[in-house]
Structure prediction request, 466 residues.
Amino acid sequence: MSTSNSGLPLETWRLLIIRRGGEEILVTTGGTKHTLPQVDIPPQQRIAANINQVVERDFGLRVISLYEVVPFGDLARGEGVFYHAVAAVHPVQQPHGDTRWTCTRSLTVDSFARDGEFAAVAAFRSMVETGSKDLAAGPFLKPHWLTEVKKWIGRSLRPHSLRLSGEFQQFNASPTFSLIRFETSLTPVWFKAVGEPNVREWAITVTLARLCPSFIPQILASKERWNAWLTLQAPGESLASKNEMKLWKSAAAGLASLQIATLQDAEKLLKAGAHDLRVSRLLSCVEPFFQFVADCTGRSQLQCFKNLTVLEISELKEATRTTLRDLDGLRLVETVGHLDLNPANIFCAADRAVFLDWAEAFVGSPIFSFEYLLQHFRRTVSREPWLAVEFRDAYLQPWRSRMSPKDLQQALHLSPFAALFAYAVTVWSTSETTSLQQPFRERYLLSLVRKMKSEVRQKDGERVQI
Prediction:
């Protein structure tokens, strides 16, 4: 079995490469029966981007990924085989290799040499029919959706004196999700659409664009029917590509400025779908969350030498309640935050920071967000304490005129533990998992609880000086 650069086995995908709205499909010829084209791509990476690249390299076709197809009664997944539909962007292109276009409707179960492939074609045809009858099933079920999207983008660009150049790079694809970077006559633009469980991101992004436009990429247009929006490419450089202290300090200061700019807008953001991580709500979650932890710990398949005892869980529950009550006693402002502040979601240029991907926005203590960003700083830039202090000061400076030094010190002391609990509560309360995924989710939550136990020791052993 081939492996990727990471050493993990490559994923095998059998492709339904279609053209002319799905009327024709590409098959590999050989003998009396057909097979679907097959590619191997690295695991745990963007599926659409990798499939598009390999199809262009191996078959000479420029394609747009549509969505994964699960054959009716399919057993191939258990064998590590997956199916994905893609559409030829230029229908007149001729593919490389021993392949040919054939009429989709002429195929039968006897047309294929491998089990499951006709079932995949039948499942795809069913998805296309659903998309033509039920728009709510997904705006990108129809094979020709790219044409409609490009027409909408073209109209949206005209007021900004921009036009599409024809080049694009796709990153995500599904019936309800899409992420594509389009080249224009000047600045690249990004088309993004979201579905469940992240449909809240559309409303949150549009709301933030209205409330504080300088902190997110400029939105050129939005379309509620698709839960989609079109933005100019974010200015500056991603923190993921730079370890420069200057840019990280700019990001920290920008985060604080964004939060201050939305101090009066908590209710609007909650209405848009932001997670409610206000202290009052977190306090209401303490009892049910730790009951869930106790239940998970007692399950035989989750037992391990690191599991907490019943007494330890009880003590941790009381420590959590005490920490949240102390934090509540500070009467801190509660404003917008971001649970997914990884470096790839932050772009910095000069004195400006722009924040992307607001699916995990929340309303709560502002310092929670900084704690999440600080963890990335320590992993990416440096673990040197003096640099962390310098980074922290860049975040605190905009707050000093609004919070007393004593309250800031106490908030910084309490927030690492409270922020970890807030994140754990979000995973616990919003995860939608199948029965197969449930043990993985429970193990992950128990790992967060063990981190909380370690954080209690640190909280009790040190104070933050500002």
Observations:
- Residues 238-461 form a domain with the Aminoglycoside 3'-phosphotransferase; Chain: A, domain 2 fold (CATH 3.90.1200.10).
- The chain has a mean pLDDT of 89.
